[in-house]
């Protein structure tokens, strides 16, 4: 699997002339017209967030899904999930905005707290014609603002991004976006964040540390029953189901996009013996890791 692509690498890939050196930890945001970047996006994780309005046909692959885009699409991506974009035939147009973690968390109402930047939320939305027109207008305003010399333009761009996000929220049932941060919600949010931080596994030396509900409860300093009850109440899934789902996703990505031995993948994901990994994977997918890799090859 390709290592995560950071913003300087992205600029290098699209041959974008960077005017100044990017300082780690400093907020950064940029806006582009999509026809200015008509290239295939390689399959990898990106070390930045991205919001795109796609006006053109193509194939989008992310996590374990493949989508054939044949109508206007609004897409959100985050550093946790790898994706691939292959432009289709015909005209490619649209806009996209990229920004880093420092920009996303610069204000109290953090962009990363919004639902479409969460690990298990929808990432692709299909706005109607009226919404496409309005979202296009917002991107044009962002492009204009980004080229201005206004000192507070990052705040303006963040406000435009929030407006675009709300178009996506309106396309989903309201109950999916209840942000009442009660005790259960806070514990669940901390658990999911802690789970997400363990990934990606992009090195054979990067072994999974927290593997069970008990491990997470200890790390969060809560009783395991309290953690399980909170996660189930808020998400409808058990703590163990969340952990297994994320490990399964990472296992599939490594089987598909790395040349590591199956035993190495299993060990990095916390399975002491290859047989344990094979049993886990087959239980959840109906196939052994070697069968999945053989199909891909």
UniProtKB/TrEMBL annotation:
GO terms for molecular function: DNA-binding transcription factor activity; sequence-specific DNA binding. Keywords: DNA-binding, Transcription, Transcription regulation. PROSITE patterns: HTH_ARAC_FAMILY_2 (PS01124). It comes from the Bacteria. Signal peptide: none annotated. Residues 185-295 form the HTH araC/xylS-type domain. Gene3D superfamilies: Homeodomain-like (1.10.10.60). PANTHER family: ARAC-FAMILY TRANSCRIPTIONAL REGULATOR, TRANSCRIPTIONAL REGULATORY PROTEIN. This is Helix-turn-helix domain-containing protein.
